[in-house]
Description:
By secondary structure, the chain is α+β, with helices and mostly antiparallel strands. The chain has two domains: about 5-105, no CATH class; about 135-190. Helices cover about 35% and strands about 20% of the residues. The chain is built from seven helices and eight strands. The strands form three sheets. A four-stranded antiparallel β-sheet has the order 3-1-2-5, with no helix packed on it. β1 and β2 form a beta hairpin. α4 crosses α6. The longest helix is centred in the C-terminal third of the chain and has 18 residues, at about 135-150. Pfam families: HTH_18 (PF12833).
Amino acid sequence: MAAVCWGLVFWELEGRAYASISGPETRTGTAPVPEGATFVGIEFAVGSQLRAVPTSALVDRGVELPDATHRTFRLDGLRWETPGPDDAEALVDRLVRAGAVVRDPLVAEVRRGHRPVVSERTVERRFRAATGLTQGAVRQIERVRKASALLAAGTPVADVVCGLEYFDEPHLAHALRRYVGRTARELREGTGGAIALALDQPTTS
């Protein structure tokens, strides 16, 4: 399903280690999960960005990182320890301290609901530079992800429409088709295949 954040993904398959950068997703899609593979993923907060790779270059695509091993991977010209499930926060701290991951304070301010003393055009330009997406796209994707989680938890469709301020049920249905690839009924019944709905998982940085 669509997602507003970029991330780092590490996995092992048949004795070989891999690492990649995942980008924001503006539409529904599927990612193969090979049998026997083990994964560790880190999702970064909206507005965080890599110094070496513009977030706009990651939208709807990913970048495999070269020379990954079971112990280390290469990013921003340096080698870093490949994290395990309990090491993600420590890796993020190191990336931030080294300046490999940066954050535009204006975007953080906007995300907290503040109104910066700059023009709307400047806000939008910097928001898009940091996230690869417009503010409107981020709001739509975050809303439909909340809707999906509520529907999967059994919340009636009408309550989701009202609570998340969709115009009507067809409006919600259109958003679900575009960004999730499921109908409200499929989400409520748990059919149509597995999707990532870990909305309570905290983002980092």
